[in-house]
Design brief:
327 residues, mainly beta, 5 helices, rod-shaped
């Protein structure tokens, strides 16, 4: 092709192959139609099988005056097995996925294309994460009533003890040469929701991931921060930040018991015993004063009192010829 292009010969090509290898990737059932003219290769249709899926793409390759190449392609890959992709992260599994992409690349002379840039969108009907069990962690945290000394260690062990499955997972990524950045990932089920930011270094085969997990069934718990970094093929351990756990446990501390005051024993009040009242005694109404029988009454009684009490005889009548001033 290089010789033909240097001679500016227009070509129309149709390629069919049962198997092919492109940059080390095995392809099968390859079909492509392309046109070559004046340093430009246009691929109107490219179909191949890869990673157990069906690839459909189109694009173009442009040769520059300095013998450099630039390429642009876009397409989709349906029904692939995403964990068969090189540098797939250990600990993740999915039955199948669909992918859309729009990428560009550069190359010089006979070098392989590099400086790959563009966007990749991955859609998975189901994603299973091994060693990640938010449901078990939620059950444990919902039952604590205080702040155990080994809270962070126990929570980490419980989280790593099982697996979680999420449905309808949408992954939006950007590639810049050897670095893939996770632009948007939000997964959720009845037990938890997880928002994740991550980068993957394709050249080194390492990744750095930070997630914020919300446990839906645990009240008063802030999103838990989880970090994970290291070799993509060895599934390094999670790191579960302890601050959100300790703050939550402090709020779950039972209220202090009220201080008990010493008991006060009250002595019984004295009981007053009234003398028995004869049933035949005459009961008088309140305020009634009875005069014992035999005492004189009227004028005779008054004279008797004068004889007994040393009371001088006084008249209440005012003196004659004395004028009493008015107040």
């Amino acid at each position: 092709l290089g010789a033909d292009m240097r001679q500016r010969l227009p070509l129309s090509l149709r390629l069919r192959a049962d198997k092919a290898v492109a940059r080390g990737l095995p392809l099968d059932k390859v079909e492509t139609d392309m046109k070559v003219e004046d340093g430009l290769i246009e691929v109107s249709a490219f179909k191949a099988g890869i990673w157990s899926g069906a690839l459909t793409a189109q694009g173009k390759l442009q040769r520059g005056s300095d013998k450099s190449w630039s390429a642009e392609t876009k397409g989709d890959l349906r029904g692939l097995r995403p964990m068969q992709i090189p540098h797939g992260i250990a600990g993740l599994s999915a039955d199948e996925a669909d992918m859309r992409f729009a990428l560009s690349a550069q190359a010089k002379g006979k070098e392989s294309f590099g400086e790959v840039k563009g966007d990749i969108f991955l859609s998975m009907p189901r994603l299973t994460i091994d060693g990640f069990d938010p449901a078990a962690l939620a059950a444990y945290l919902d039952g604590i009533k205080g702040a155990p000394q080994d809270l962070a260690t126990t929570a980490h062990k419980i989280l790593r003890g099982g697996a979680a499955t999420y449905a309808d997972v949408q992954v939006d990524m950007a590639r810049d040469d050897q670095k893939i950045t996770l632009k948007s990932l939000l997964i959720g089920n009845v037990d938890s929701s997880v928002r994740t930011d991550a980068t993957l270094d394709l050249g080194a085969g390492k990744y750095d991931l930070k997630s914020f997990m919300t446990l839906r069934r645990v009240e008063d718990l802030e999103p838990l921060e989880i970090t994970r970094a290291g070799d993509a093929g060895k599934a390094p351990d999670y790191r579960l930040q302890a601050k959100q756990l300790t703050d939550f446990a402090a709020r779950r501390m039972p209220p202090p018991e009220p201080e008990l005051l010493p008991a006060i024993i009250a002595e019984p009040a004295p009981v007053m015993t009234l003398p028995d009242v004869d049933a035949d005694a005459e009961m008088l109404p309140p305020g009634y004063l009875s005069v014992p029988p035999g005492l004189p009454t009227d004028e005779a009684g008054e004279d008797m009192l004068r004889d007994i009490l040393p009371v001088e005889t006084e008249t209440l009548a005012p003196p004659e010829n004395v004028t009493t001033p008015l107040p």
